[in-house]
């Protein structure tokens, strides 16, 4: 629970400012915020995501000073940044790999929220704002991927905007507006650069709402049990600032390993060739963090149904608080639904693997399956359909399993499972 403010201005300047713009009070309340004492390292990714957002905005602003949003000059301007601008190779490496680090952290953050039931009442608005942030990140990342104007950038923009065009009624109008004409060209690049620059600041605003929504009910915790007293909490500073700082340092080691030792490892080789509308790269694939949704799109034979399934895979997250019928938050105490959750993770990984491969390629050696599996079934498109089922089964399971499962006994409070037997007894009882 957020509770009343405990900040007391100590100087005349602080008192003067506090009555007009209580920004010091806001910062002090954030540091003194009562936080459940049993949070594990999965909770540190919220702070890591805030760090990633700041890094992406700062490096993006610097890159925009040198980038030229023109179809004839964009590719060369990116090369100029890398080769000629002082530390341009570093700024671009941080920004390009930072997008992947950002998505890696947000996926872990979302899976943690799913496992521990952080979307359940009274945190529904907190969860919905998080899904909105995720959608804005996807839009920003897609538009940013187009800006280098390499082969994969150009053809990725062509494929995705054509997918949007298949939506009934509004699709063609949106596609024409994004293109700025009748095909992906210079007006498209200008629009994407403008929106790519704008959306991170929109994300920052929604993140502010997300943090605000967090501080109303307070943090969830691994037990899913509500905070009952001060005994269940510790101040955010120094306990969790130190813990988050350590986790961020470990995260930075992984980040730096890509930036300094393999800066192009997460990119596609075709994107280091200038865009050519006359030559189509084979295969056309998005960045790794879009691969599961790309696989869902290709798993459905009908184009419109594929698009609706892809958007539905994200749209279901918005109504997740009302799909889950269980009274218990944390899957620690829900062994039945825990199985479906890990199957869901397997489905996401399988979809990502399928999205990176050609749909008609054969994932299994012919000799090993020839006697048991038809050659047409031994393809990534059919494996994608299996991943499709593994993904969507989780949302059905949340509804139906919640109605029939019997959860394990929960602790009475956060403190009870971590204190030794009798430690919470009063001195009178001990005497």
Can you walk me through this structure?
The chain has a two-stranded antiparallel sheet with strand order 1-2. It is mainly alpha-helical. It contains 17 helices and 2 strands. Among the domains are: 1-32, no CATH class; 37-273, Cytochrome Bc1 Complex, Chain C, CATH 1.20.810.10. The model is unreliable at 423-431 (pLDDT under 50). It has helices at 12-18, 23-31, 45-64, 74-83, 88-115, 124-146, 151-165, 171-179, 186-214, 236-261, 291-299, 303-318, 320-323, 335-355, 366-369, 380-404, 427-430, and strands at 34-36, 233-235. The radius of gyration is 25 Å and the shape is globular.
List the helices and strands and how they pair.
Elements: H1 12-18, H2 23-31, E1 34-36, H3 45-64, H4 74-83, H5 88-115, H6 124-146, H7 151-165, H8 171-179, H9 186-214, E2 233-235, H10 236-261, H11 291-299, H12 303-318, H13 320-323, H14 335-355, H15 366-369, H16 380-404, H17 427-430
Antiparallel strand pairs: 1-2
Helix pairs in contact: 3-5, 3-9, 3-10, 4-5, 5-6, 5-10, 6-7, 6-9, 7-8, 11-12, 11-14, 11-16, 14-16
Provide a concise account of the structure shown.
This protein has 431 residues and is mostly helical.
Using brief descriptors, characterize the structure shown:
disordered C terminus, 2 strands, mainly alpha, Cytochrome Bc1 Complex, Chain C, 431 residues, two-stranded antiparallel ribbon
